[in-house]
């Protein structure tokens, strides 16, 4: 018996010695250089690109498995300025051999030195990464799923017993993005990436630094721990991004699989920074033209994102844009059709600051072009419900306060009801319908107004102040388009307007209808003449931006005026005829003859003239 045991021990020792000897001598016995061509061919077949290994291939088994390559290059398609898409000076990986036998991966080194990636877009729109790997994807064929005891054994044994990486480094990398047609070039150089203390049980410390167009960029933080069964539980995330000493972004939370499926739970915080200064630091023109050159000088954002299989939720959101602050929350439910629920609360904003510069080119484009809304297809497919509140909003030089509206939409038809706001001391309420089912959005507006101060409203919105008083009334309007010219040229509808306790500024209507020369000679007046009235009512229609009324009446203590005419809101011109009727004599004067008066010219400075058949006295 002892001889049998001794014989088995000797045999085992001989086998072990032969195995170790084979492992040690294998790198010297295998001609790796002759296998380079086969390896290059397999990469070419997988990527569809030329591939070359210019340096030596090194391989070892003991005391650790070591594999290294040098002078690697993956080519770009024909027609690009750079012949290489990717090149690497050297690549090396070292793994301890014996721990692999029991599923414990211990990497002592993973090193990529001087990788260079070139991304290019040609004037005809081609990119040098297009089609990469298409050959391998097309040749791949899904095979039958393997079953049986061996397959189950493989699944049971796939769990890692351990993972440790002592040194994982990308050193002195470079990425270049060029688009010659637009004279765009971005260069990332000095790219160094480190993963420290990589294991399944501890957080993986991460550090990435680089220079982007000579501006410092860094990403630091930690990922994990991954846990004993990677991919089957959420991974903690804590990252901080710094760009050009102006932008700082932090991301905290976790992402990965849970019992309920894939889940992402992250807190995002973007500290206040200047978008304009950021683009200036990178030597790029600011991509957004604004009427106020100081707009978009301050931006900050924070929000909590929760993404599950059923929905994506943004909560606790806050956006700071210049002097404006927006609190927001939103939920997108993965239903059929998708359902969007949101809540927006804005303190104040001057929208005029963010409009494009008011140039002649922009005015012509606004009046003639019809740009499409972004995301129309998404609006047509989605159900939505939300609330919007705004303390103060400036648009087209006018202010709206305490705006409240509730939105509901489905199938591209969006309805805002109720819509309420304070407008120049008065109130405005109604409903708005937006139809985006067609190429151009169509708006339907129904509104009621009460006690609105007309003079400051006209001054801000139209740049004129020929009327004073408190206004009320109702209107039903339809319009389409996005720019001011588009909206006004499509404005149609009608309504009723009533002003009380007001005045017509810039005209002595009493003197005009009595055909007094001094009433028409405004340059001789030290002060602008005015005609006070107790009530002014008008029934009007709007057709393609032209206001028309045949039933307008002005009531003063001693005078009645009926008016008819048109005002072009696009050209800002008007043409009216006033027909007077005296009901009492002015103090110190007789009634005299009543002469019709015509009003024409610009809205900002209308001209009053008697009818041609009359003669000034």
**How much helicity do the residues have?**
10-25%
Distance between the termini: 148 Å
Count of DSSP strands: 32
Shape type = elongated
Rounded Rg: 38 Å
Total domains, how many? 3
Task: Note the main sheet.
Answer: 32 strands, mixed
Beta-strand residue fraction: over 45%
Task: Count up the helices.
Answer: 11
Written overview of the protein:
The protein has 3 domains: 157 residues, no CATH class; 133 residues, no CATH class; 144 residues, no CATH class. The chain is 17% helix and 51% strand. It contains 11 helices and 32 strands. β28 and β29 form a beta hairpin. The termini are far apart.
List the helices and strands and how they pair.
Blueprint: H1 2-29, H2 32-47, E1 51-53, E2 58-60, E3 64-75, E4 84-96, E5 104-113, E6 116-120, H3 134-139, H4 149-156, E7 162-165, E8 168-179, E9 184-196, E10 198-199, E11 204-212, E12 215-223, E13 235-243, E14 247-258, E15 261-273, H5 275-281, E16 299-307, E17 311-321, E18 324-333, E19 339-350, H6 360-368, H7 376-381, E20 383-395, E21 398-410, E22 413-423, E23 426-435, E24 442-453, H8 454-462, E25 467-480, H9 484-489, E26 492-505, H10 509-513, H11 517-520, E27 530-543, E28 546-555, E29 559-568, E30 573-582, E31 597-602, E32 606-610
Parallel strand pairs: 5-7, 5-8, 6-8, 19-20
Antiparallel strand pairs: 1-3, 2-3, 3-4, 4-5, 4-6, 7-10, 8-9, 9-11, 11-12, 12-13, 13-14, 14-15, 15-16, 16-17, 17-18, 18-19, 20-21, 21-22, 22-23, 23-24, 24-25, 25-26, 26-27, 27-28, 28-29, 29-30, 30-31, 31-32
């Amino acid at each position: 018996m002892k001889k049998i045991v001794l014989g088995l021990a000797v045999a085992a020792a001989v086998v072990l010695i032969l195995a170790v000897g084979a492992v040690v001598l294998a790198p010297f016995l295998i001609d790796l250089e002759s296998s380079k061509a086969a390896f290059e061919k397999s990469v070419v077949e997988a990527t569809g690109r030329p591939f070359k290994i210019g340096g030596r291939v090194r391989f070892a088994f003991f005391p650790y498995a070591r594999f290294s390559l040098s002078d690697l290059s993956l080519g770009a398609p024909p027609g690009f300025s750079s012949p290489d898409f990717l090149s690497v000076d050297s690549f090396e990986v070292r793994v301890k051999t014996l721990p692999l036998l029991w599923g414990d991966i211990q990497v002592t080194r993973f090193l990529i030195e001087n990788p260079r990636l070139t991304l290019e877009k040609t004037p005809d729109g081609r990119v040098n990464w297009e089609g990469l790997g298409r050959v391998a994807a097309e040749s791949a064929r899904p095979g039958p799923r393997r079953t049986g005891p061996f397959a189950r054994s493989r699944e049971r044994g796939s769990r890692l017993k351990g993972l440790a990486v002592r040194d994982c480094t990308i050193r002195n990398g470079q990425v270049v993005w060029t688009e010659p047609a637009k004279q765009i070039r971005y260069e990332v150089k000095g790219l160094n990436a480190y993963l420290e203390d990589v294991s399944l049980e501890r957080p993986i410390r991460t550090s990435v630094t680089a220079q982007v167009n000579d501006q410092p960029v860094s990403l630091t933080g930690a990922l994990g721990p991954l846990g004993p069964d990677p991919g089957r539980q959420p991974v903690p995330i804590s990252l901080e991004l710094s760009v050009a000493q102006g932008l700082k972004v932090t991301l905290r939370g976790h992402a990965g699989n849970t019992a309920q499926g894939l889940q992402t739970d992250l807190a995002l915080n973007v500290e206040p920074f200047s978008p304009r200064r950021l683009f200036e630091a990178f030597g790029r023109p600011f991509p957004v033209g604004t009427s106020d050159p100081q707009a978009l000088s301050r931006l900050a954002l924070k929000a909590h994102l929760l993404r599950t299989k059923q929905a994506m939720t943004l909560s606790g959101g806050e956006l700071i844009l210049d002097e404006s602050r927006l609190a927001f929350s939103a939920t997108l439910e993965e239903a059929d059709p998708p359902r969007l629920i949101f809540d927006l609360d804005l303190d104040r904003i001057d929208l005029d600051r963010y409009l494009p510069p008011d140039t002649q080119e922009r005015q012509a484009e606004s009046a003639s072009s019809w740009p499409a809304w972004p995301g129309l297809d998404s609006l047509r497919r989605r159900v939505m419900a939300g609330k919007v509140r705004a303390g103060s909003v400036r648009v087209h030089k006018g202010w709206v306060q305490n705006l409240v509206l509730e939105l509901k939409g489905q199938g591209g038809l969006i309805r805002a009801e109720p819509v309420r706001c304070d407008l120049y001391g008065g109130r405005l309420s109604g409903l708005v319908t937006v139809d985006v089912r067609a190429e151009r959005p169509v708006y339907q507006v129904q509104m009621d107004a009460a006690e609105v101060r007309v003079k400051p409203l006209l001054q801000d919105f139209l740049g004129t102040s020929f009327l004073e008083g408190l206004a009320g009334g109702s209107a039903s309007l339809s319009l389409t388009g996005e720019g001011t010219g588009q909206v006004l040229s499509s404005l149609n509808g009608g309504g009723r307007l009533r002003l009380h306790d007001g005045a017509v500024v810039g005209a002595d209507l009493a003197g005009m209808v009595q055909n007094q020369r001094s009433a028409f000679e405004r340059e001789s007046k030290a002060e602008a003449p005015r005609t006070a009235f107790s009530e002014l009512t008008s029934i009007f229609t709007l057709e393609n931006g032209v206001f028309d009324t045949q039933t307008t009446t002005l009531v003063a203590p001693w005078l009645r005026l009926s008016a008819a005419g048109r005002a072009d809101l696009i050209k800002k011109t008007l043409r009216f005829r006033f027909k007077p009727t005296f009901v009492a004599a002015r103090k110190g004067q007789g009634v005299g003859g009543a002469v019709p008066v015509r009003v024409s010219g610009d809205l900002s400075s209308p001209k009053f003239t008697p009818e041609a058949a009359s003669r000034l006295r």
